[in-house]
Amino acid sequence: MKTTITNKSVQTKLRYIAAKDGAHAIYNYRPRPGEPDLSTKYIEPEYRDYDVEVNDIRASEQAFSLDNQGLAVVPLSSTLEDYYNDTQVRAIYMPEVEALVKQATGAKRVHAFDYNVRCESYSEQKKYMARKPVRFVHNDYTDASGPQRVKDIMGDDANELLKNRFAVINVWTPIVGPVLRTPLAVCDASTMQQSDFIDTALLYRDRTGQIQMVTHQPAHRWYYLSEMTADEALLLKCFDSEQDGCARYTAHTAFDDPNTPGDAPDRQSIEVRTLAFFD
Fold first, then answer.
1. Alpha carbon 75 to chain centroid distance?
2. How far is CA 76 from the centre of its chain?
3. For the chain, how many helices (H) and strands (E)?
4. pLDDT of residue 1
5. Burial group, residue 75, by CB count within 10 angstroms (0-12, 13-18, 19+)
6. DSSP string, 179-212
7. Distance (Å, rounded) from C-alpha 248 to C-alpha 22?
8. CB-based contacts of 156: which residues, under 8 Å, 6+ apart?
9. HSE on the CB side for 217, CA within 13 Å?
10. Which residues contact 120 (CB under 8 A, 6 or more apart)?
């Protein structure tokens, strides 16, 4: 299908957490008979859809940076041939992403530690371990889970690395472009307050993680990159240990563009999470 990139803003609905009070959690497994019932300790999130304008980065005069808006757009060139081949992704793509983040941030050391591929139809078909796009506003790490990830991954180096600034940077890019269905929306971090974020437990059978849900505020300003291609990457700062006024978290979500052509293919994307360590 032939497409033409057009600069446009989108009127759509984004899904935020509705309630702020209480200890929230998301189950990532179904408790079996005899397993602890954590429903008495946690509240499963309730959501509410809000009308939101998502602005096209291509048409914006705004200058975007990881430290100010929590996001940046950078060119990406990869030699990877098969994004659904785990061995190739880890051997070829993740080192490429490490080099990209190091160049973009000036970090002394970058470690790519995890990745996801997403496609709605592949997820439903249980192909390639693909997941569905996430359709609620969230951020991937908290003041607790960010440092914990360093401890989990960096082994004996963790304590020394945690003495200095570090950040969790998500590198998001299409596998096949242009993206026409369920693009990614990112909120300008400078339009958000600390109180907008709600720490939320992620319950697994063998561990408990933590992310941030987000409460709606009219001041939030949202952006996306229209018809994003596979040679473009969105960098999202999901956590920063620095507390000098720079962006520390970046809220994001997939969204439905009401102008999407009926025959548009499902979005295929890959996101790599990296730890960036600074002097």
1. 18
2. 17
3. 5, 14
4. 26
5. exposed
6. --SSPEEEE-GGG--GGGEEEEEEE-SS-EEEEE
7. 23
8. none
9. 19
10. 132, 133, 181, 182, 266, 267
What phi and psi, each to the nearest 5 degrees, are found at residue 91? Answer: -85, -30
pLDDT > 70: percent of the chain: 96
Q: Is the peptide bond before 45 cis (omega within 30 degrees of 0)?
A: no
Q: Facing residues of 232 across strands?
A: 75
Residue listed under structure tokens 């990881």: 66
Q: What is the pLDDT of residues 78-128, one digit of tens each?
A: 999 999 999 999 999 999 999 999 999 999 999 999 999 999 999 999 999
Beta bridge partners of 25: 201
* Residue owning tokens 């939101």: 52
| Confidence category of residue 5, pLDDT binned at 50, 70, 90 | very low
pTM of the model: 0.92
